[in-house]
Amino acid sequence: MSDPMHLYLVMAMRTPQFQASAGEAHKAFLDDLIEQNLLELTGPFTDGTGGAYLLRATDLATATQIAHGDPLHTSGSSTLTVHEWRVRRFS
Q1: 70, exposed or middle or buried, with CB in 10 Å at 0-12, 13-18, 19+?
Q2: Which of 2, 7, 10, 39 is the most buried (most CB within 10 A)?
Q3: pTM of the predicted model as reported, rounded to 2 decimal places
């Protein structure tokens, strides 16, 4: 049986209104996604401009709804974009 979940790349780019408190709340948000088995991977960009995470969701609308609940988004600290990603794995 095939997996009904798809992968969605969430790009989170910091805005000038970035708040450190939103960053801490974002970490708790990601922990919750881990508990729900919805987070594939995550990490910041080394240049400090933002980061990205890979969500598991049934469709783009659901992935967008999840991402728009991220405190980085709700606080205006980052601009989030969500892209369906057809990943190719080599190992």
Answers
A1: buried
A2: 10
A3: 0.90
For 45, the 3-state DSSP assignment is: coil
Which residue in this structure is represented by tokens 């594939």?
A: 40
Count CA atoms closer than 13 A to 22's CA, side-chain side.
Answer: 18
Residue 81 contacts residue 68 (beta carbons within 8 Å): no
Distance linking the first and last C-alpha atoms of the chain: 21
With H, G, I as helix, E, B as strand and everything else as coil, classify residue 13: strand
pLDDT digits (tens, 9 = 90+) for 42-86: 999 999 999 999 999 999 999 999 999 999 999 999 999 999 998
